[in-house]
Hints:
Elements: E1 5-14, E2 17-27, E3 31-35, H1 42-50, E4 57-62, E5 65-66, H2 71-76, E6 78-81, H3 93-103, H4 108-121, H5 137-149, E7 155-159, H6 167-181, E8 187-192, H7 195-201, E9 204-209, E10 212-218, E11 227-235, H8 238-247, E12 251-254, E13 260-265, H9 271-279, E14 283-290, H10 294-302
Parallel strand pairs: 3-8, 3-9, 6-7, 7-8
Antiparallel strand pairs: 1-2, 1-4, 4-5, 9-10, 11-13, 11-14, 12-13
Amino acid sequence: MENIIKLQSVFFNYGEFRAIDDISLDIGQGVYGLLGPNGAGKTTLLKIFLGFLTPNSGSGSVLGLNITSARKAVRRKIGYMPENECLIPGMDGVTLTAYLGELSGMPKQEAMKRAHEVLYYVGLEESRYRKVDTYSAGMKQRLKLAQALVHDPRLLLLDEPTSGMDPRGRKEMLELIKDISRKESMDVIICSHLLPDIEYTCKQVIIMNRGKIAAHRAIEGISEDKFNRFDLKLKGDVSAFLKQLKSIKCEVDITDRGVYKIRLPADESPQNLFKVALKNNVQIRHFEQCKTTLEDTFVNAVGVNNGH
Length: 308
Ligand SMILES: Nc1ncnc2c1ncn2[C@@H]1O[C@H](COP(=O)(O)OP(=O)(O)O)[C@@H](O)[C@H]1O
Ligand SMILES: [Mg+2]
């Protein structure tokens, strides 16, 4: 499988502040989510992919092109939907989209033709001659998506694509992204702090926190892990019980609420928990099977003290 993005030990500082802290990364084909709380470094990382920011150290390539020496060639192959507004006041939707297409290297006429097509695709057909300053927040997001698609890029980078949208608009944006990602000729990376958006649109998730990669997982399979999870409440001499659990390769986390979070290998029967308890005179007062969700992975990866 082709590598879309490869980074090796990349560091990036804004002045004294280290925003990207030793990131090595391999992104393959398909739809990837870059998930993390605000300030994690997602936007900074996208700007490094685009060659807008140069790493202080480390190296990398996007679509086989070096991120520092081949920036121009990289950018032609990337469609970028920025987080912040990139719209030029006073221009109408179709003129702006065509203009940005030309900036990506398209001939004038072709850019105009494609501008009409992509605006139709994102649902702005009727508003395409209106000045972009009069667009609602949701329409601006759609226009930002249209301009990212106009030159038919090989790789699409979407930064907080549903930002500022109402629930209906958000759903429609996610459907559009899903539709785009069905195209085999275009790979997609979506940055978001919204877990449901990533869960809905992506196949793989990379969780970022404080400038580092905290986890990299397939979204499918998160709930069908190699472990089964149980929450237990116990009474009795717990320490011997816990010790013996380790011998059946169980992992145990103790929470402050007195709940023991058990990860039991999938090939071990949950009955064994009861057997071990009985042997050690421990009563299992509460027994609940838990599902692992992307949320668990996210919370584990970024820690609970992060506002999430
Ligand atoms: N231009 C800048 N100057 C200084 N610090 C910045 C700048 N841009 C971002 N940062 C800081 O870098 C960190 C990562 O920011 P960013 O990449 O925007 O995170 P995210 O997109 O995950 O919210 C944040 O702590 C942010 O305050
Ligand atoms: Mg951001």
